Structures are given as structure tokens and as C-alpha cells.
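Data availability (excerpt). All sequences and predicted C-alpha cell strings are deposited with the supplementary files. A representative entry, DNA 3'-5' helicase, is shown inline so that the format can be inspected without opening the archive.
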Amino acid sequence: MWSEEQKAIILSDHPIKQVIAGAGSGKTATMVGLLEEREKKNSFLPENTLIVTFTKKATKEFKERCHKKALSSKYHISTFHAFCYFALKHYDTSKNWSHYKLLSDRKKWEITKEFLRPLQFEIGGLPFPILFKNNGKIFRELSIEGYEVYQSFFQTWKEKNHYFEFDDLIFGFLHFLDTISADRVKEKWRTLIIDEFQDTDEVQLQIIQKMNFHSITVVGDDWQAIYGFRGATPKPFLEFPNHFPGVVQYFLSTNYRSKDSIIRTSLLPLKHNKDKIEKQVQTFRKEKGIFHVERIKDSKTTPITIWQTWYKKDPELILLTRSNFRKREWIESGVPQNQVMTIHSAKGLEFRTVLLDLVFGWSEGEKEINEAEERRILYVGLSRAKDNLVLLIADSSKTKRLADRLSEDFSIRNRWRNRTLRWARLW
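C-alpha cell line:
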């Protein structure tokens, strides 16, 4: 049932493990297998085990898998933020966290808009998400005094009105861990399994260090680190051995999801990235699969025609875009809403046929752009396809556009194949 790589992880008794898992490598199944093995050996207590996932959806999936395997129901399985809130609410006696509620973006921007009205000529008409991106970098450049006054006002307002944001939970729990009351939390949870560790941040790493876990298993893929806009960075994953010198690294390198040509194609964008853990990706499904490049002009008619052509071949296909704006454009042109997604929302999912839009919607700002992350985003999109992958690229190239730079590898590699692939049948 298990591969040799999976067995090595499941049977390992090393207290600190770093699992470097490629796309489609069965990492969740392996983690459940690890729990199953530990329960058989009675080597740990489920009620002292914390399992951290990245999204609510992943939390639900992990719980369902444990239930199907008839594993213990005593594991604490949640997102990082949800665990911090749980721990603060139950153990932090300095503040009644149960009276606090999550602040919605809509409410936040209402309050922010009112406060910043007198500063409108200093900060201009920038959208709030851009103004406050990267710890308010642009705001601070425009008015450091205005930024500091706003931060003080906003924190006071949240306390007075009993609101919190996700970052408040993380920083609040980090500070709580320096108190005597935190000893109960550290004694409670001795074992940690954390998924998607490549999407963590420096503060979450500090929390893990301060919790003093006896056993730690971090699972992730630095090639799929795509949440830089939230402050996440692959750095804690890349440098994990520096923070935990006794760690033993394991690889899950076999891709069980995609056919061979799709795997080889999806790896192309990453060859330009330097800060990464090298992996030798192995193909489980030896069939070649369909990879096809479609060149589309800057018009609305051609793209929808291409969609219709491929829809006839696979009515369940999914079209992936880089941005919500581009997603709306496709929906307005006639693509069903349930068949177009952003790459970020598709992370962790898989589809038989994927159309990936590499024409519009990609980050293009020369100064602020993180090209390495954009290449990882492209990799995540490409690696969602199981059997058939269709890449949409611009008919004409502009060297300064990121989307066109990302298209170069596919254009050169497939120019000679296009005539053959144009007439290729899916089945």
C-alpha cells in the first residue's frame, strides 16, 4: 500500500521530521498513516497532539480521513489561527477572549476610510489593500506619522469594541507564551504535525519554538509557497534545519496525480528560481498525457472560442486564472462561474483537464513584483491537471511583461509540437 518513501516517514521514530512533499505525492494520506502507526504502537497520546492545517477545508478533510480510518477523535485538528484563538480563550486569564469577535474586512475599511479622510490628499486614492500591503510599506513611505497615528487609533478602537484580526491572534498567542499561564498549554500539547509549512511566517515559527514540543513533523513544499501577499514566506521551511538541528529530512517525490508530460511541463517555470529545495520528481502514471499550447490574441472572441472547443472534449474542465479580475472577465465572456477559479483557490485540488490563462491578470509591477513567487503560482496552476493541460499564452510577446517572460519556456519547447498537438484527441 505504501511506497518506500512513505514507509520511511510512517515508521520513523525520529522526534523531529521535515517532510518535503511534491505536488500530488499523497502527503495527507501519509500523515494519516503516521497517526495510524503511532496509535498501534501507543507511542503517544492523541489528546496531547496538535495537527495544524492551512485552511478550514483542509481541516475538514483531515478529520474525515481520520474518521474513515477509525482513528481517535481526541486530536486537536485546526488551522493555526483557530488553535491560537482556542488556546487564548481557554488559558489566557488576562483577557476575556470569548467576548471578542473577528473583524470583517468590510467593517475594517469603513472605520479606516473615516479615519483617513483628513489624510486623503497625502495618501491619494490608493485602494486600502495596496496601501496596507507589506506592513503598510506604501502608507509609511507617504506619511510615516499618519501611519503610526492610524495604527495607534485602530488598535485602541479594536480593544474598545472587542474585535480582533487574524494577526492579533498570532501575536497575542506569541506574547502569551512568555507568561506563567502558558505552562499549562505547553504541558498539554507535546506532539505537533503541521501541514503546508511552506506557507507559514516567522512569527508562527517562533510560536512552534516556544511551545517546546517533544515531537514535531512539518510537511510542505517550498515550490508551492504562494501566499507572500499574506506575509507568508518559504524561509522558515527552507531554513528549518537551522532552527531545529536534530531534524531528519524525508522526501515524498512521486507524483501520483498527473501524467508524465504534464509533470515535466509544470517543472519548467521553477528552473529559474534559486532559493529552493531540489527534488527529483518521479512519475507514477507513465502515460504521456496531453499538453497543448494555445496562442490567443488580445480580444474577447478568440479566448471563449478556445474554451468552447475544449469544453466539448471535457465538460468538466476547469479554467484557472491568476486574479479575481481576470476570473470575472472570463465569466462575463460566457464561461460558467463554477468552471473558472483562481490558482490560489484551486491549491490542493486536482482536475482531469485544466485550461490555464497565462495572458492577463499576472503581476506586472517591475519594482514590487516577486517573480520567484509568480513562478511558483504558475507551477501550482499547472500541477492541478491530471490528464490534459492547455496553456493559453499571448499571440504577440512583450519582453517587459511578466506573463510573456513566463511563457517563453513553453513557447520554445512546444513550437515544433503545436501542429501535431492541435489535432490530438483526448481519448
